[in-house]
Write a structure and sequence with these properties.
single chain, seven-stranded mixed sheet, about 220 residues, Rossmann fold, 7 strands, alpha/beta
Length: about 220
């Protein structure tokens, strides 16, 4: 079963930042389940690691709790990175946590960005602050980030649509299939390999002379 990890830097309990991230996670689970697969959702509340992060920043020694959190994140199949906005950017705890990760430690991991703020004036924080940070760690930052200002909570807004779009992108990443099967004798149901059978790990390649030679003499009918 694949794992989706929420990295929540919200400070409250309950946290509106986590609430938005959870909505995306729940919608992603529904889509992945509909595709016939399972998805385990785990949450890292960064505020519970505040002392551990301070220790790391002054000693460069990770506590067991911080090390567990780092392994959870770098071993995930996908992430939702969620932060409140302070002073026009991500929170200090959010940055501190990602500062503890090694460069390229998120390579190939799809990430959906989430940010919450008191005003819509901070709506560009995802593209100007969060996206560059995650890209530096070589994450696959998905196109749709979900920014929510205070006025959108408990009001008619486009938030459900943005949540659905972000969840769709995550689900597509989590259910994608690599490679194409069906080109071997075994796949064709022959039941036996012959001397001319290609090795199972052989790449499909054009015949000698190229595809023009393969199609030579074909009537087109």
């Amino acid at each position: 079963m694949k794992t989706l990890v929420i990295v929540n830097a919200g400070l409250g309990d309950p946290s509106t930042t986590r609430q938005v991230a959870q909505q995306i996670a729940d919608a992603t689970v529904r889509q992945v389940t509909a595709a016939g697969e399972g998805l385990d959702v785990q949450v890292i509340d960064v505020r519970t690691l505040a002392a551990d992060l301070a220790t790391y920043m002054t000693t460069f020694i990770a506590t067991p709790a911080l090390e567990d959190a780092r392994r959870t994140v770098t071993g995930a199949d996908a992430l939702i990175a969620a932060t409140p906005v302070f002073q026009g950017s991500y929170s200090g705890l959010f940055k501190m946590f990602f500062d503890t990760l090694d460069m390229k430690s998120l390579a190939g991991i799809p990430v959906t960005m989430v940010a919450t703020a008191g005003t819509a004036r901070h709506s560009m924080v995802l593209d100007f602050a969060v996206r560059p940070l995650l890209s530096f760690l070589h994450a696959v930052v998905l196109p749709t980030g979900v920014f929510v200002d205070t006025a959108e909570f408990g009001a008619e807004s486009a938030l459900p649509r943005r949540v659905a779009t972000a969840a769709g992108e995550l689900a597509a990443q989590l259910t994608s299939v690599s490679g194409v099967a069906g080109f071997t004798a075994e796949d064709a149901g022959s039941g036996a390999e012959t001397e001319d059978s290609a090795p199972e790990d052989a790449d499909f390649s054009a015949p000698a002379g190229g595809f023009a030679a393969l199609l030579a003499g074909h009537s087109g009918e």
